[in-house]
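Comment thread on ticket #2218

A.B. wrote:
> Attaching the input chain for the structure job we discussed in standup.
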Amino acid sequence: MSEHKPSAVAPKAFGAVLSGSGSAAECNALETAHPTARSPTSDHLPVTWFRRAVVPRLRDEAAFTLAELVLSVGVLVLLVLLTTQLLNSAATIMTLGHRQMNADSAARELFDRMAIDFAQMVKRSDVDYYLKSSTTASDCTLCTRQRGNDQIAFYSTVPGWSALTGAQQSPVSIVGYRIHVSPDTFSNRMERLGEALVWNGATSDTRGDGRPASVIFWATLNPWANATNTPFDVISPEVFRFEYYYLLKNGDLSSTPWYTISSVRGMQDVSAIIVDIAVLDAKSRVLLTNSDITGLAQELADYGGQAPGGLLAGWRTALDANRTLPRPALSSVRLYERCFHLSPTTL
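C.D. wrote:
> Ran it. Output below, let me know if you need it in another format.
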């Protein structure tokens, strides 16, 4: 009786079937060579049954179900939404931060220029000033009560613009600050006047009030009399509100630059000038018209004897109470205050 020997292909094909990596040809070869071969792990089931039942079931169990795919897509969408919200919030914070930095930079540049001009102010009783005051003094005929945006002008030993150069120029200039309110492209912007004076006899030019444009005569200071020919420059286009008051040498805060029983006396009674400004950045300005900005500046009250910081607190309350203008523009308004101590030096 002859002994049956298994074919050489059997171990390979059978192992391939058990491992799940055998091909269909190998399985068919196994069945042809050994039709009665049994799987050691299938309770003596035919290999044909193992290939047709077990292997597809293993493959089905390794795939994703529809519920799993839906859940995965939902989680992905949620993560995308959360990431988008985070990016939008970061962009908003960065935008507000940039606007804050721009406003801070504009206020700092203006205050630095004012510090130089005020520090070199000519303080003499025989010169004139253009100041705000609640009363009128005999030696300050142009000191008047200013409602809304203030104006100020004085003589200062800082360089200024002049058509004449060289030895004809004097060391004195007329310096002034105001908010441009005319209905044009420069409306509601801070302007600075820096007009250099020349020595008497160097020119026959006259100022807007008919007085010689020289330093010797110390003409009555009214730089706004002939504004069309006066060299005004926009120094801070973001500033739309300008208010100032005085710190007297006796420690009082006042809107009048002298003691009650005194007079201007060349600003001798004034220890410092306190300036308050309101700044609105360029991107927020597009939300308002010139008339809107003018009306908003009028809502910010004049100085009325408040303690330091009280004026800005009142301005902030007025801004928060406004219900007619767009809130994004109102929230972008920045308020600043600085005290400029006057130098005791005179010319």
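A.B. wrote:
> Thanks. Noting for the ticket: Confidence is low (pLDDT under 50) at residues 7-21, 214-219.
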